[in-house]
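Interim report, section 4.2 (structural modelling).
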Amino acid sequence: MKTSMRTYYMYLFLFLMAATIFIPLYVSILGGFKTVGELRTNALGLPTEWNFDNYISILINNKFWLYLWNSVIYAVGTTFFVLLFSSMTAFVFAHVKFAGNKFLYNYFLLGLLFPFATAILPLFLRVRDFGLLGTSWAVILPQIAFGLGFAIILFRGFFKQMPNEIFDAAFVDGCSYTQFYFRFTLPLSTPILATVSVITLTGSWNNYLLPLIMINNESLYSWPMGIMVFRGEYFTDWSKILAYVSLTLIPAVVFFLILQKYIIAGLTGGAVKE
Amino acid sequence: MKSPKFDALLSKYSTLVIFLIPALTVFTLFVVLPIGEAAYYSFFRWNGYGDPEKFVGFKNYSYLFKNRVFIMSLKNNFYIIALSLFVQLPFALLVALMIADKIKGATFFRTIFFLPYILAEIVTGLIWAYIYDGNYGLVASIWGFLGMNPPFMLGDKDLALIAILIVIFWKYFGIHMMIYIAGLQAISKEVLEAAKVDGAGPFTTAWRIKIPILLPTIRLSVFISILGSLQLFDIIMPLTGGGPSNVTHSMVTYLYYFGVMRMKYGFGSAVGVVIFLICFLIAITYQKTLMKDD
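Predicted structure of the assembly:
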């Protein structure tokens, strides 16, 4: 009897929480189909008339696609180099004994304590002095640099757990480190490659501060910058803004539902395993 | 067939060079050096062109700590930390304890609670800017339904920060819950079975067994949460952009508006250094005291 009351209250609490979390998303997605007037009178209900104009006007806008494409370039470029550089570095930390191994590993770990904001002004100057302003590298290079630390930790942890016997056997057979890295380490590391990719992709995809500092040329805007410009243009024309928001929100949710396993492994794995 | 010793050594060192150089170069150029440069620039008045020449000593810093808006932004950052530690994390722990076991609907709740975390901060901010809008937003509809005049929460000096805190709770509560769930699921079944056999109820088990085992995870999530709170930027921009009357700045939005936008490279760097020092001090004290056993 006591237990069932407890269960009842627990579910009541969980459902209230779920509603609080879900309602803002729900009203935003529906809001794009309503007129501004209806937003005021009918915020929670279904639209009286499904109005697709807001969505269509955004979807036929070239800028929308340009900003998305730019963000794809930033995300894919960053992820490719983070995977390559950090797995190579972690491979050395995990398998090659040399003086300074521990020291260099700690050097990269220290980077995790460096707040990105502290570096932005000098970063901007460096990118400018390298002549990279106005190119995608202005966003990609700093993102790679700041993504390395955490990726190296995750890779090193994974490589260390791989059975040493494979490595010893291959080495006796005259396999070089480089061959071993490409022939054994990488193919056996798909779970961790997926995890690091997902973390890096989403980090880059959602990043606002860095492109905001680095990019002043509209043709290179990332989508978060684009959506803020859109907001500036339409200000309180919320049905248009909510349509834009939904168009970027739905792919993120789908991406998450498909790759949930890797996302959660990546986000919690580093925290739980020590 | 074994390679001669010399070849092996050569191969080892060429591997080291080839494998380490790319990451080391990028990391040093774009992470480590900029932090050092920020410290150096912070002693100059400089617009970023030519070499920094106008040395001003600690003037940027002394101005900063006399500046009302900066002090306010520092306070806001600490309010955000307080909210995270005393409201968000306990809530996340409570929910994690409820749905870490395979109860009915656990997966459903987990997914819903985690959803806000995967949205971009900018999108989160825009959604809530709509919710809070005094003319068209959800809050306005609810107030209207009750027959009252809706507040403009983001435009009200007394309410704007609270409005932001609510959004932060909404967005980040799920990730901490997930971290706790992962920690709880790693607790060995035997321990929990033993407790059950000894007649421990759910509250006793949670308080005496689960939470103590989870402590290292909790300490880590507190740490992540503090460092994250100190660097808050994206989410504030679409909500208030630091307004109204500059009362909702975080240190990073302050750095953006008063350093980057005004091209004050020396002054902006000083703000960056303060952020760095606070993060660093917290990290060091934390590791020396609370996390020394982990």
